[in-house]
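User: Please work through this fold.
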Amino acid sequence: MQALPSPMEEWLALLGGQRRYSPHTLDGYRRDLHLLFALLGDTPLQRATAQDIRQAVARMHARGHHPKSLARMLSAWRGFYGWWAPQAGLPINPVHGVKPPRAARGLPKALSVDQTQSLLDRQGLPPPANAEEWRDQAMFEVLYSSGLRLAELVSLDRHPVRTARYTSRSWIDLESADAIVLGKGGKTRAVPLGSKAIEAITAWLGRRSEFENRQVNDPDADAALFLGKRGARISPRVIQKQLGELAVRAGLPVHVHPHSLRHSFASHLLQSAQDLRAVQELLGHANISTTQIYTKLDFQHLAAVYDQAHPRAGRKPDK
């Protein structure tokens, strides 16, 4: 892959160092910046105009890129120019005001309450019996109990750590039944841990030493709440794999992704409490408009109940 111009590399280093963006996010931003650099061709970064950016978006759209992908690319490009334009003496940010094509907004895929209970209760399966099963149980209980993003779950530490070699971003506090989480945009929030999550975490911590690798002096692994079998902080891919396999074994008829449990958390909480602002805070959404999509999901649930329960629902008129 062609090297990026130095201003782009400096911006990525800033995001990773001072703002502590996750490696996954930084990899995405790097790909987006490579695309911009390639699409501009012979046009220097400092001479790019809004028209150049619109043409770049149009070319990517013509190649089949989804509007959501284009919106993510524009966000990365806008962030880069927003940081670099003042330093380079550019009169404006050329990405400012450029919008992606509109896309129909789909509803999140949430499990029903019964499906979620079947998954977490390990329907038809024996209770967790070893370190791996208790680790998985704890991870999935936390995802549903607290509505965490996958990256937030991975970042959890056993307790806050601040040393010369390592500083915690997120951690759990079993005494107060909370998780302190550094979410998107560098915003920290506290989310509750339910009793089932605390029970599973406690059982996992009693077995965590089985996964520790004493030969590796890694402060990140030492602090991490959840470990992989080799003793490092668990990876998102392992969580996805383990959850998908459990869903199949529990007999769920749908594919279950870690984000499915976040969506389920929001949907079920909104159905019960009807408090959109509270759900917004717990999910860590910057804008309530992002949370409002769950009101549509809730209406879908109510409509399904109506169709099943109302004596005249769905009946076609007699001919």
About this structure: The first strand starts at residue 156 and ends at 157. The chain has two domains: 6-88, 113-303. The radius of gyration is 23 Å.
